[in-house]
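Notes from hallway chat w/ T.B., transcribed later so I don't forget. T.B. wanted the structure written out for a chain they're using in a teaching module, and asked if we could keep both sequence and structure tokens in one place. Agreed to drop them here.
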Amino acid sequence: MTDFFGIPIQALMGQLMLGLVNGSFYALLSLGLAVIFGMLNIVNFAHGALYMVGAFFAWMLLNYAGINYWFALILAPIGVGLIGVLIEKLLLGWIRQLDHLYGLLLTFGLALIFEGVFREFYGSSGMPYELPAIFRGVFDLEFMMLPKYRAWVVLVSVVLCLATWFVIEKTRLGAYLRAGTENPDLVKAFGINVPLMVTLTYAFGVGLAGLAGVMAAPIYQVSPLMGSNIIIVVFAVVVIGGMGSILGSIVTGLGLGLIEGLTKVFYAELSTTVVFIIMAVVLLVRPAGLFGREK
């Protein structure tokens, strides 16, 4: 097997694949954060907790109701989205016009509540989620073995991210969303229900987190701590890409996942901090982020 700077090519490609899978989750979660911040100006710190709730919904549907992965892919994001509707209507609607700090503190408190409730009922140890039978096994690409489920995760994440970007940036609905953020009174004059649009936008953003949780369940153990373990990295991804930038979240999420994978190959001790080093450098050079707009 050919080596690359002394590293077997199969090991290198394996780590890149793991990095791409992690990057797919970073991209999906940061995309939801970017949609919420870009459209609603809310720093949603509960995003990681709702990702965890999505994974638990999938686990409970399977273990309590016998509902399999494919239905969970639909039902769990809808359930998380409905929780998002309640959060937006009952809590966030009251503070949307205030400083970003109020929304951050409120959603941080919600994240602690969600995590505490699930830890009370399920403990802190992780629980396995059965991999769907169709995804067991690997694709033999000669230079590496590609697990079928990981390939599925990357494919779904990329398609969803690009579809979301297209809708928001290239369609009339996306134009209404952007206009409703910048000038809600003008959009209301055209007969558009702006409060409903805001609520549905928040529900969609957290629904993406719920979907990511369902897809993560067969790879990582379902645990109340899984959201808090990933949300800090996801916020770093959003900052690097540019707060509110849809394209920035997608590109940065996937790119940083690959960089993490490469770092594990060449200098594993740095793999857990490389994202934050990149964030510090980007903030020094371009405070608005790589794709953000300078004010």
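Follow-up for T.B.: The chain has one domain: 3-285. Might be a good example for the class.
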